[in-house]
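#onboarding

Welcome to the new folks! Below is a worked example of what a typical request in this channel looks like: someone posts a single protein sequence, and someone else replies with the predicted structure as tokens. Don't worry about understanding the tokens yet, we'll cover that in week two.

Example request:
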Amino acid sequence: MNSVLFALIIAAVAGIAMAVQGSLNAVLSKFIGLAETTFVVHLIGTLIVVGALFIFRISSENLIHWKEAPWYVYLGGALGVLIIFVVAFALPRAGVAKATTAIIIGQVTMAMLIDHFGLFGIEKAPVSWWKGLGLAFLAAGGYFMLRK
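Example response:
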């Protein structure tokens, strides 16, 4: 299996995990609230990563280079908080399939812009007519998914 195919399979697994995580977070938020759910999810994630660092003795030597990264790359943490909060809000109100459809359309649209302009130091991958057509079909599919 080539590395690109393997990466795409792993990405699909992440997509599956995101749908399950969003559903679990939405249910948790009904019990403890949106902000509290966001806190608990990040706390559990932090504990798991800290545990993995110690249990698997993952090297933390690279952490000393944290000051070398551009400031804006740390916005990923803030975006993670926003994502957990918004997904937990949207899923119970719109439904898992509809909310996930909107999420995917938003993700692909933003990903194409990031690729096209080479934002954040990502290698440029200009949007072609075929990619634009693919996005249009994705949006059309999303429209049909979101209809009652």
